[in-house]
Specification:
The complex is a heterodimer.
Chain A: H1 15-35, H2 49-76, H3 79-111, H4 119-140, H5 144-171, E1 182-183, E2 186-187, H6 193-239
Helix pairs in contact in A: 1-6, 2-3, 2-5, 2-6, 3-4, 3-5, 3-6, 4-5
Chain B: H1 5-47
The chains are: A mainly alpha, B mainly alpha.
């Protein structure tokens, strides 16, 4: 992997990516709150679908990213892959927290409870806890390479848990609704066109915002590790 | 008229609130790293042999 090895590299994403995040976010918010029709059964609270489901799919993307970066780290021991995994896991945890909170806000008026221990919710909670453990392990510190190895193993566990969470609604009897995007009838057959378009805007906005935060976090991780290296080097220089 | 607007807006507000808090958290961590880099640059300049 190639990296910017200057002492103080840029720390923000390109203005095009930031602009794309602003435009897609505004479009997604307008679509979700104004453009999309009101659900006849659930009412307006169903509009949380356009935030909840894109956030869940973006978290899956983060899990895949962290898994690939962790595998490459275990193969190559190149710290750049570990930096990618660390950054992806933290943003993935943020998206997972959004999924849990919006899910609770949706569940209370529809199910009459904030939470239920059904297969989908429980497996997602375990997946979320794996990423909490990942981030806690990172902040604990310790020997850098050992922590990176442990975290890589945790991310593999998370990747294994992802299909279990996703298919839990098909394998088990759950309160959580089944798929409406990828149905047996075909992609998007479970939703009217205007709802599907709003979902697509939400998904694009979620992924673009994820990319922005991921780049910010990655640059910070790279700077932080470079700072530690320089400090160690200077300490050695000054003591010799 | 909207049905259950409280839960809908609480959901959106919590999600955006979390993103904003995270951005603030990142900017604080970034400021700490920047400050440390400046200190290290000063130390590096002092450690360099003078011409």
């Amino acid at each position: 992997m190639t990296r910017d090895h200057s002492l103080n590299p840029p720390t923000t994403p390109s203005s095009a990516l930031v602009g794309a995040a602003l435009v897609t976010t505004l479009l997604a918010l307008y679509s979700a709150l104004v453009f999309a029709p009101t659900d006849r059964v659930q009412g307006d609270v169903q509009r949380l679908f356009y935030l909840h489901v894109p956030a869940a799919l973006t978290m899956y993307l983060a899990i895949l990213l962290v898994f690939i970066a962790s595998l490459r780290y275990l193969q190559t021991r190149d710290a750049a892959w570990d930096e990618l995994a660390t950054s992806g896991a933290e943003i993935g945890l943020l998206w997972g927290t959004i999924v849990l909170l919006t899910g609770a806000m949706w569940a209370k008026p529809i199910w009459g409870a904030w939470w239920t221990w059904d297969a989908r919710l429980t497996s997602f909670f375990i997946l979320w806890l794996i990423f909490v453990a990942y981030v806690m392990l990172r902040s604990y510190g310790g020997e850098v390479e050992q922590v990176a190895r442990f975290c890589a193993v945790l991310s593999i566990l998370g990747f294994v848990g992802m299909p279990i969470t996703h298919y839990a609604v098909e394998w088990f009897r759950t309160m959580h609704p089944g798929p409406v995007i990828m149905t047996e009838g075909g992609l998007g057959r479970g939703l009217p066109g205007s709802m599907l378009a709003t979902f697509a805007f939400g998904l694009v906005a979620s992924v673009v915002l994820f990319a922005n935060l991921f780049i910010l976090r990655l640059r910070l991780e790279q700077q932080s590790r470079r700072t530690q290296q320089i400090r160690r080097h200077l300490d050695l220089m000054e003591t010799s | 008229m909207m049905t259950n607007p409280g839960y809908l807006f609480a959901g959106f507000a919590l999600a955006w609130g979390l993103v904003l808090v995270y951005l603030w958290f990142l900017s604080r961590r970034s400021a700490v790293v920047q400050k440390e880099l400046e200190t290290l640059e000063q130390r590096l300049n002092k450690a360099k042999p003078q011409d």
